[in-house]
Write a structure and sequence with these properties.
889 residues, alpha/beta, seven-stranded mixed beta sheet, 39 strands, disordered C terminus
């Protein structure tokens, strides 16, 4: 059994609305074998991984997998379950798996759920699948495989790249409130919301956190001065740049004192309750670091507390206790440490609610002061301290005291946060009791520190007491009640017309006063300006638009390839448009039929928000059928059908039921709801439709009108947009006509049977004859589909010049020319066909073949070379003779 490759779909996909990884397995010699063909296999596998006995499988109950293996199941399916079990063993909580046939015999795709915020670059899932293959192979070879060593390495990698406790809680709180969440790379940085409502948060630091406030909080000397100036009690302190100055500070302040770094964090190198000069000198050496300076301040007796202030109010408070052990009279200190660290709540750094205890130099020194060492056996009930500072990051614990905070203490903490200038901060303070008023006596209470990026874990999961939804408090600060986090999103898919429809909708929204982000096969546009040039019809370009804080609405071309290879670039849309689903891309990515294509493109309709809008082509059976899909109906969408004919049966039935429809009636683009009719625009005035001859353009206009109306765009704005949608400036490369000498040249990207047939019909209606075609077709389509497209071309064109793409897409030179010519001859034996070496030669040959005034259809691979070629020929854009000029103003 061999793992060929793994690909990750980070957004909603055809399998799950959450991320998945898809592993391609080749069973090789195990092809056709079932588990029952290998006696003892299941028993050995379960002996190695006992948790498999609880897997439900398709039975829907524990033991389902065991039953399946007893009946006989294929090894791809077994590998899926083993991978899920290994994921659970390392704390990677995922539950969905599916195994499907793919490609030839013995080739399977194993689809596995991935954690939402696992980095796209993570290799953890691939390593788990490889371990699963090893486990299955070992069990087949008669072994009870031991994966513990390798699994521990994978677990460490998973721990290192997972979100920290605070950031994970923020992501969860945002999603619970319907706020979109995207993790940035492998960082603890989250991008929240879409477009103009996008915000960012890094741990508990928001994008509104004051940079000055952070600087003040990070400089303990400055923070104390700012707080003291505000009348907030702080310890008396001195900065010392040498051991002698530290001793002088001890004399001036009087013991006991605390010695700590000026810019330290997480309680590192903090030395507490020092009274003797040698202790202070040693503490200086530890705390000075590269800066060469320390802060010596008076020690305030009492208890340690952390108060979290969010948006000018106390969100939570915790009493902190330094790292310690409680003896049992039998176990040595080292053994007690191991016992405490076995708690799954403890991890390294900030990966778990609590941090593991250590026996480093600091801990050993403190043990020695208490008369202990690692091998000492404390008495039963004896408390042994490992640290003096009460930080969770050094092994401390917390007790929730939020309900106990006295109003005076709360007011002091809120004033401290305001003085430093922080929207979210953690206040470290010492005082006798947080439930009592702040003592008036000097030195009896004080704020020790203001933390600019406070950890939330002590409040989320305290060692004692109830957890507090402090992550929700931070999200509510960023998105107060009633504040939106999303912009309107229109997602457009289909086989033909996607780019034109997207451009029309974006133009309508722009005229409606909304700064619009648009993705299409020609790039990313924001506010009508191109900001990124590429084939931008996939999830990365969608994320680019949705991450732009200037964007007020998004219109996203959502192509098949992006859905298959990476999923969607958004979590849900407001409007989904499916223009049509016809034969194209067959033979690519295991897509063999129109039904396969429909299953892929259906995702756009399935992933609308509840009560959103779905726009479907009533004259295209696959598209129209989506209205009846349970996965679409579960969204309870508003259905909007469009059709060129008012008599389309699906449209008629929909209107009879009181639904919304868009169609041509008496030469007008018309909106209908039940029996009510609203005229939008005469078809002859739609720019680029050439007096209504370009029926495919009118279909696109109807789809675009339906989508824009779903977003509340007024009818007159829709009409104005369609009148001014000049193809040369707003829809380049799609149905654009140029005058080259005496001949009109029609430039289009048609590359499948339906699109080529539509262009042929347009040419015949507009010019009364087929003319000449100069064509190329993409090489990544199947031979059958290339032939079918060529036959559709021959139906309208008797003279054809054939040239090949610069990118042959895996084909041999001349192969596509042969296939196209073969298809042309099959449909039209008398066809005149001419080969051409490149685009320039193809257009020149086509113009030579054409009679004066005869149209030439030019199909292309990339638009820029076409534009440059037409410029060299002094081509002039030809206006639309069927359309009146747009009125000024």
């Amino acid at each position: 059994m061999r793992l060929d490759h793994v690909r990750r779909l980070s957004g909603p996909n055809t399998y799950l609305s959450r991320p998945v990884a898809i592993a391609r397995l080749d069973l090789q010699s195990l092809t056709g074998h079932e588990t029952t063909d290998h006696p003892g296999f299941a028993e050995r596998l379960v002996a190695a991984l006992p948790g498999l006995a609880g897997h439900h499988c398709s039975a829907g109950r524990p033991g389902g997998l065991l039953a399946a293996m007893a009946r006989g199941t294929y090894f791809g399916h077994v590998t899926e379950h083993v991978t899920l079990e290994l994921s659970g063993l390392i704390g990677r909580e995922v539950f969905f798996g599916r195994t499907v046939l793919a490609g030839g015999p013995g080739e399977y795709e194993v689809i596995l759920e991935c954690p939402r915020d696992e980095p796209a670059s993570s290799t953890v899932v691939e390593r788990l699948i490889m371990l699963a293959v090893r486990a299955v192979t070992g069990a087949l070879e008669g072994q009870v495989p031991d994966l513990s060593g390798d699994l521990a390495e994978v677990a460490a990698a998973h721990e290192a790249e997972r979100l920290g406790v605070s950031t994970a809680a923020l992501a969860r709180a945002a999603r619970e409130r319907g706020v979109p969440v995207r993790r940035v790379g492998g960082l603890n940085l989250l991008r929240l919301g879409y477009g103009r409502y996008r915000r960012t948060v890094w741990a508990a630091m928001t994008d509104a956190t004051s940079a000055i406030g952070m600087e003040v909080a990070g400089d303990k000397r400055l923070a104390h001065r700012v707080l003291a100036d505000a009348g907030v009690p702080v310890p008396e302190g001195r900065v010392a740049a040498s051991p002698a100055e530290a001793l002088a500070a001890l004399r001036d302040i009087g013991g006991p004192v605390v010695v700590k770094p000026l810019a330290g964090h997480q309680g590192e190198n903090v030395h507490i309750e020092l009274t003797e000069p040698p202790e202070v000198v040693a503490a200086f050496a530890s705390a000075a670091g590269e800066a060469g300076e320390v802060l010596v301040e008076s020690y305030i007796p009492g208890k340690d507390y952390r108060v979290l202030v969010v948006g000018g109010r106390v969100a939570a408070a915790a009493e902190l206790t330094a790292a310690h052990l409680t003896g049992d009279g039998e176990s040595a200190i080292a053994a007690l440490v191991e016992r405490v660290n076995a708690d799954p709540a403890r991890g390294e750094g900030h990966d778990r609610p609590l941090t593991r205890l250590a026996l480093g130099p600091t801990e050993l020194a403190l043990l020695a002061r208490q008369g202990h060492g690692p091998d000492s056996v404390p008495g039963a009930g004896e408390r042994v301290w490992l640290r003096r500072n009460a930080n969770l990051s050094t092994g401390g614990t917390s007790r929730d005291v939020t309900a106990e905070v006295h109003a005076d203490v709360a007011a002091m903490c809120v004033r401290a946060a305001a003085a430093v200038g922080m929207d979210v901060c953690g206040i470290d303070l010492r005082l006798p009791d947080i439930a009592s008023p702040v003592p008036a006596e000097r030195g009896a209470a004080g704020i020790l520190e203001v933390n600019a990026a406070p950890g939330l874990r002590m409040h989320l999961a305290p060692h004692e007491g109830a957890g507090r939804d402090v992550a929700g408090d931070v999200i509510d600060l960023m998105y107060p009640a009633g504040t939106p986090s999303r912009i309107p999103i229109v997602s457009v898919t289909g086989t033909n017309g996607k780019t034109t429809t997207v451009r029309m909708i974006a133009h309508m929204l722009e005229l409606d006063g909304r700064r619009t982000g648009m993705t299409s096969t020609e790039g990313v546009h924001v506010g009508g300006r191109q900001v990124h040039l590429s084939d931008a019809s996939g999830p990365r370009s969608a994320e680019m638009v949705l991450g732009d804080r200037s964007v007020e609405a998004a219109v996203l071309e959502t192509a098949r390839g992006g859905i298959v290879r990476r999923g969607l670039g958004y979590d849900r849309a407001d409007v989904a448009v499916v223009t049509n689903v016809t034969r194209d891309h067959l033979g690519v990515d295991d897509t063999e039929s129109v039904a396969d294509l429909l299953d892929i493109k259906a995702l756009v309709a399935e992933e609308v928000r509840r009560g959103g809008h779905v726009v479907l082509n009533a004259e295209d059976e696959p598209s129209a059928s989506l209205a009846e899909r349970p996965s679409v109906r579960r969204r309870d969408p508003v259905l909007r059908f469009f059709a060129l004919s008012p008599d389309a049966p699906v449209l008629v039935a929909h209107l009879r039921g009181g639904g919304l429809g868009y169609y041509l009636a008496d030469g007008w683009l018309t909106e209908a709801r039940g029996d009510r009719r609203t005229r939008i625009l005469p078809a002859a005035e739609v720019a680029g439709a050439f007096g209504g001859h370009a029926a495919h353009v009118l279909a696109n206009a109807l789809a675009a009108a339906a989508a824009a109306r779903a977003l509340g765009v007024a009818v007159d704005v829709v009409a104005r947009a369609l009148r001014s949608f000049d193809p040369h400036t707003r829809n380049p490369g799609r149905g654009c006509v140029y005058r080259v000498g005496e001949n009109p040249v029609l430039v289009d990207y048609a590359h499948n049977p339906a699109a080529v047939a539509a262009m042929g019909a347009f040419v015949e209606r507009r010019w009364g004859a087929g003319g000449v075609a100069a064509v190329t077709l993409p090489g990544d389509r199947s031979d059958e589909l290339v032939g079918e497209t060529a036959r559709a071309l021959a139906a309208s064109f008797g003279r054809v010049v054939v040239y090949e793409d610069e990118d042959l897409r895996g084909r041999r030179s001349g192969e596509m020319t042969r296939l196209i010519v073969q298809g042309l001859r099959e449909a039209r034996p008398d066809v005149l066909h001419h080969p051409a070496g490149d685009l320039k030669g193809a257009l020149a040959s086509a113009l030579d073949l054409a009679e004066p005034g005869e149209p030439v259809l030019l199909l292309y691979e990339k638009l820029q070379p076409v534009t440059e070629l037409l410029e060299t020929l002094d081509a002039e854009p030809e206006g639309d003779p069927g359309r009146a000029a747009e009125p000024a103003g």
